[in-house]
Amino acid sequence: MFDNKQIDISTLPQVAQVDFKNLHPKYKTVIGIRLLIASIFILLLSSSPYIFQHITNSLPISDIWLVSICGVGVLLVILMCIISLKGVQMKGYALREHDIIYKTGIISRSQTVIPFNRVQHVVVYEGALLRVFGLCTVEFFTAGGALGDLKISGISKEEGERLKAYVIQKITKSVKPALIVEEKEYKESEIERINETE
Fold it and tell me: Which segments cross the bilayer (predicted)?
């Protein structure tokens, strides 16, 4: 008989009590290098009108506007660096018995929970810069498609491989009982069909 009892919300586990593991400290260096490259590009782009004006003196723009454009570029770089580096500190993940939790965000914070029985496969890969520092990215592909996938960057290669092996082991254990139940249901339906024909 189908039973659907009400659950007391106060007895549910609190996600806030989970002990999240921070990303590898070297990941800040990776982010710093990426920020340096992006900052150089932004500063060159924002200062190019000022430089071009002083070389050719052909732009119909006052120096105040040219300096303002440069100032906007500098401000953008500062904000980008603060948000990116602070964002690394706010990221973290935790493994539980049946799922993995990932938190991220500074102003708008989010926590993503991926049950192991929804994970289809796990991939560990390294970008060129991550490889230099011995880091990797672990991506969990779920049955929910791209919107349900989870990507964790900035953990050590060794830890990423262990995480992958652990989740795959959990996937394997959860798949076998499901196959047994499906086979049992199939056999029962076949028996019922045979009895009906007789």
Answer: 31-52, 64-85
